[in-house]
């Protein structure tokens, strides 16, 4: 369940960027200068799919990708790995990073996984048409779930 949850957060991030205001002039390693008071946006979707930011497997020393390409959803990508849904790092910024990492991420992850597990055990969930719901709608830098209603039938 934890691997599935992390992969959902990685592949289908609802917020596509994190905004920050530059507090001082900053020079990047490329020589590019970000002037003070500039708005800087980290592109989460691109970061979550960039090989340069992926963790290195401690056992093999290789970059960890999993069985499927990063563009594809793989519910088992993190099974058996030390990487958890709440682990923050450059490859997974959904919960922030460093001193700005969400302190409630552990509680949130446990609650979401609990509710999802209860739903799976208690209900058969389908769309009204019986077909897969359409992909999320992108509006600006935010994704919204499809509007098609879900039907919950008790088991």
From TrEMBL:
Cofactor(s) in the UniProt record: heme
A molecular-function term among this protein's GO annotations: iron ion binding
PROSITE patterns on file: CYTOCHROME_P450 (PS00086)
Alphabetized UniProt keyword annotations: Heme, Iron, Metal-binding, Monooxygenase, Oxidoreductase
InterPro entries per record: Cyt_P450, Cyt_P450_CS, Cyt_P450_sf
Keyword Protein biosynthesis on entry: no
Pfam family, one: p450
Membership in a protein family: Belongs to the cytochrome P450 family.
Protein name, UniProt field: Cytochrome P450 CYP5204
């Amino acid at each position: 369940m934890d691997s599935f949850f992390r992969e959902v957060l990685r592949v289908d991030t609802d917020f596509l960027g994190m905004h920050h205001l530059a507090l001082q002039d900053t020079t990047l390693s490329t020589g590019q200068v970000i002037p003070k008071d500039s708005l800087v946006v980290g592109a989460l979707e691109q970061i979550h799919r960039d090989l340069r930011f992926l963790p290195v497997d401690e056992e093999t020393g290789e970059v960890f990708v999993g069985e499927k390409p990063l563009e594809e959803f793989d519910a088992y990508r993190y099974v058996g790995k030390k990487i958890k849904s709440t682990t923050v790092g450059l490859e997974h910024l959904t919960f922030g990073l460093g001193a700005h990492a969400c302190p409630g991420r552990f509680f949130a992850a446990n609650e979401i996984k609990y509710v999802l597990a209860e739903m799976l055990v208690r209900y058969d969930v389908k769309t009204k048409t019986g077909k897969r719901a359409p992909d999320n709608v992108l509006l600006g830098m935010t994704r919204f779930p499809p509007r098609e209603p879900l039907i919950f039938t008790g088991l």
